[in-house]
Structures are given as C-alpha cells and as structure tokens.
Design brief:
This protein has a single domain (about 25-134), classed as Glutaredoxin, CATH 3.40.30.10. Helices cover about 40% and strands about 25% of the residues. The protein has helices spanning about 10, 40-55, 95-100, 105-134; strands at about 30-35, 60-65, 70-80, 85-95. Strands 2-1-3-4 form a four-stranded mixed sheet.
Length: about 130
C-alpha cells in the first residue's frame, strides 16, 4: 500500500495562494463550455469573433472546458473605488439563465455596450479624481 507523504509545498499552504496574479490583462473574457455537449467549436467561434472585433482592446480571452451543459461568458474588468483599481466579475451570458445561445450580433452588442460603458466611467472618474487632487 502506498503511503502519502507531505511535501514542503503541502506544509506551506497559504490563503494568499488563491489570490490572482497582478499581471492579469484586463478586460479578461472567459468562455466556459461543456465538453460533453461538444460546444468547443461554438466557444472558439465566439472567442474568434471577440478577438476579431475588439482586437487590442481586450486583455485576454480564455476558453475554459467544463461539464454539465455549461456555456457561460464572463468578463473581468477594472473599476475605481476610492482611488484604488479593483477587479469585478460580471456574467455577460449564461445559457441556462438566458435561455439558449446568443446570436453573434446580440452578443457583440452586449459586450460593446458593457465594455465601453464601464471604461467611460472608469476614465471619467479617474480624470475627475485627478482634477480634484490637483
């Protein structure tokens, strides 16, 4: 019978290991898709359309394989709160919540509205804050 041994890595577990690295490129789009349902091609198509439409305005697009009928598109974006930039997660589309798959036009419209709405307010408030500080 094999024995389990503790490695130095196991003994140094820390809560800070769950913190995301600082160098995440924002906004980050995550497309979770069900591999059992064979939705990888659909997820890759959505990723391709996002990258083709918004190219360098996106930080990264990730395809995340899951099971159980999942097809969820999530965005992480930066917001300014009390002079600090924090990240927020927002679900753009969930197949179960929204009743199916979005058409590409609707999906790109939702992303465009969400993306530019938050970045407008982010830059507006950061400019306002810099004016008030001066």
């Amino acid at each position: 019978m094999a024995e389990s041994t503790s490695t130095p890595l196991d003994s140094n577990l820390d809560i800070s290991d769950n913190i995301a690295p600082v160098n995440i490129h924002l906004p980050r789009i995550s497309i979770q898709f069900c591999t059992q349902c064979r939705w990888m091609l659909r997820a890759a198509y959505f990723a391709q359309e996002l990258l083709s439409t918004f190219s360098t305005d996106l930080g990264e697009v990730a395809l995340v394989p899951k099971t159980g009928g999942v097809f969820t598109v999530t965005i992480w974006h930066g917001t300014m709160n009390d002079g600090e930039i924090t990240t927020q997660e927002s679900i753009l589309w969930d197949r179960k919540r929204d009743g199916g798959f979005p058409g590409m036009f609707l999906f790109l419209f939702l992303f465009f509205f969400f993306f530019f709405f938050f970045f407008f307010f982010f830059f507006f408030f950061s400019a306002l804050l810099s004016i008030l500080v001066i």
